[in-house]
Structures are given as C-alpha cells and as structure tokens.
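step 4 of 6: structure.
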Amino acid sequence: ANSETISIEQKLAVQSIRRFLESKTSYDVLPVSYRLIVMDTSLLVKKSLNILLQNNIVSAPLWDSHTSRFAGLLTSSDFINVIQYYFSNPDKFELVDKLQLDGLKDIERAIGVRPLDQGSIHPFKPLYEACCKMIESRSRRIPLIDQDEETHREIVVSVLTQYRILKFVALNCRETRYLKRPIGELNIITQGNLLSCRMHTPVIDVIQLLTQGGVSSVPIIDEHGRLVNVYEAVDVLGLIKGGIYNDLSLSVGEALMRRSDDFEGVYTCTKNDKLVTIMDTIRKSRVHRFFVVDEEGLLIGVLTLSDILKYILFEE
Amino acid sequence: LATSSIKHNTLCVASIVRYKRKYVTQMLYAPL
Amino acid sequence: STIAILPSSLPQIHRANMLAAGSAAATKISPLSIKKSKTKWHFGIRSRSYPLDVMGEIYIALKNLGAEWAKPSEEDLWTIKVRWKYDMGQPTNEKIPDLMKMVIQLFQIEANNYLVDFKFDGWESSYGDASPSSNEDEMSTFSAYPFLHLTTKLIMELAVNS
C-alpha cells in the first residue's frame, strides 16, 4: 500500500512539475541581473579558449560582425573537432594555431562532423517548449533569441542550459519532495554496453569515444569494472590550453592531471536513490550527471540531466 | 560603455542593457 | 541517500594515484591554474593627453572609419554627435534603419585625467524614413552588439593611431 501511495504521489508530482514548466517562460529563469559573454567570430580559437577559462564558462554565443548576426554557440564540441582535425593532420599545426572562430565550420567539414543543431527559442515561449527543443536537438543548451525592435536584428538574450532549468525546478517546485520512487524502477538510467575506458587508454581514443558516442563524458573503470574517474568533454579545454601538440600521446589518466584543483569530483548514486535527493543535489551543487554504481562500486549505468528532464517532460 | 584593458591583443567592451524587466551586462570580446 | 562523490576522482587523490602508479608524464603535468583574473573595467577610455588633442584623435579616427558627425556647437566642444552607416554586407530588401547614432563625450576626472564616454543614441535610416522614435523607456529589446562592435573598431583605431 505504501509503495502504491508513493507511486501515485510521484505521478501527481511529475504532472504538477510539468504544469509548472508549461506555466513559466525561459525569461522567468533568468536572474534579474546577469552577464552574457559573446565573442566576435574573428577571434583566434586559442584566444577564445583563454576567455572561456578566465570567465569560468564552457560555452559562449558567437557574433559575426560582418553580417551583424549571431553565428551559433562556441562549445566544447568545437574544441574536440579541432583536436581531432589536428590529430589527423599533425603537419597543420600552423593552421590550427592561427585558426579563427569563423574557421570552425571548415574544421567540421574537414573531419566530416555534422554540425550540432543548436536550435533557439524566444525568451517568452513556455519553458516546457525550450526543454522539448533541447531534448530534440540533443543539445544541452539553447540560445534565447529575441529581435531588436528597430532593426529586427537578432538579440541573444541568454543561453539556457538543462542544468539551469533543473536547478530552477529544484528551487521552485515543492513537489520534488514527492519523487520518492527508486530511480532503478523508473527506467531512466542509461545502462548496458556503456562506453567506458581504462586509465591507460590514450586520451585521443577517449576523445574519439566522446564524438562517436555523442556523449559528453566517458567513465574510466579499473580491471574489475569499478568506476575510478570520468573524462568529460569540458576537460578538452584544459588539454588544449596546455598545448595539444604534446598532450595527445598522453593516457587519459595523465590528461586528467590537467584538471584544476577546484574540480568538485564525480557524483555517483545507486539504483535505490530517489529523484527527491537527486534534485536536491542539483539544487546545491554544479552536477551534470550521476554515475550509477552498485554496493561494490561496480559501474552499472549513468543518469544524465537529459534523462531526468525527459522523465519529467514525457513520463508518468 | 565599459572597457577592459587590452590584453593579448584582445579587447572586451560591455554595456548594461535593460531587457524587459531584467538587466543584461552584454560583453563582447573582439581581436585588436 | 547513497549519492556520493567518487573519492578517486578528486584531483589531489587522482594525482597521488597516478604518481604511485609511476606514470612518467605524471610528474611533468601540472593542474590548469587559470587565474580567474577579475577583468578590470573602466568607464569609457581614459586619457592624460591635452583635451583638444584627444578630441582631434577622435575626429581623425571617426574620419578613418567613415563615420560622420554633427558640427559641434560653440558652447559644447566636448561632445560629438556621430552617425555611422552600418552596412551589413548583405542586401536586405526590408527597410531597416542603417545609420547608428552615438554620442561621444569628453569628461574631466581630475587635473589632466580625462575620460571619453561612448553612448548609444538610436538608429536612423539613410533613405529618409523617420524611424519610429520609440523613446528610451518603451524601447526594451535592442541589441547592443552593433554598438559594441563599432566602439571596438573606434577604440582600436585610437589605440593604433596613438
């Protein structure tokens, strides 16, 4: 009877949170005062890396001053493409060193990567719609675009991420406290033939896994299958910052030593954890995924912010 | 207009703009 | 709750494990310590040059960049009302205002310390349409990027010239 009650409460809570997402707009998620860092596409890629790291951000909208339009988002995928291009063309060091942001499209074409469809949405559309667009485009962020009322030029008002939306829900929806069913019952964990690697795997192979798998992190396991660490797409920024020319031969364990000391660590959970505590953790910490392990620490699967968002948007 | 010191041949300018009832500090990084 | 942070993923512990495993490169790789240097912001740009020289530099830079300006009034030599054709390279059949207006003003902060301030002043159309003069208050969605872009060009022109 108790688990029946819990199931009903969870179902009602999810539906209520969904109505909340339908009743709010992306504009509501924005702080009263915030900053938006934009880069001119004529900047050098290596300069843009410094700007991201200095401002402690991993993505930024691009602005093409020739056409006076926005030119999409700079994300860690772009830096991964540059590394892959350089790895296939080690003689092109000069070109990579002088590469400008408006040259990233050519790099995508050169390595045969389909550009990430970012999509965009008006700030005053329902938040629920922004979430659906992000899930659709498999992107973890979406630019909020309005129009200058005099010149009809695009304005990037902000860029909304899945993390910010889930944190907004965790902060504003009291119903999260009724999400008490174990996540192992909800069929939202990505498990079974999970991409993984070992600590001695060459970092360039792990970067290839990120691209081929279309994932933003690769778990590192030991000989028993226990989770030891995780290589994330954003770690590539540190790799390039250190000069990619001499780092590609490194193992992923050595490459992880470039991580700055303020890295918070990899979050794990088990199948018995509930979304109430998952959401509370998202409210308190900058966490982007939870690796699901068993009592022995053996890797079972991963619960990403997309998985949580999909459950709230479409399940129950 | 706010400006930052020019470093590594990169200039950053910013201005605080009202968007509806919120305030955005729009920052643009451009190469010298 | 069994939510936890994986101890072996903390940088300090990971580093110790790698060194213990005797990794050769591990001794040479240091953590990324980007000093998140707080960007130091200034209002406008500062100058210690003689005021009229500053104004002269600005007019020269504006001329080099193809901008035009209203003849300054005798009473106020220190304010320049600028108009800048903002062509975006691609023809647009829709009539959108293409002349950006900007006000550049010299202020004295203290003895021989001056500040050049740049202010966005709306748009005009080069084909004469009186652009809707939505006043400052109503206008609530305007893109600052063309303005920011032109000020970077002007600042660069001044930096290069000086």
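step 5 of 6: annotate
 - The first strand of chain B starts at residue 2 and ends at 4.
 - The interface with chain C takes residues 1-6, 11-15, 17-20, 26, 28, 30, 32 of chain B (CB under 8 Å).
step 6 of 6: archive
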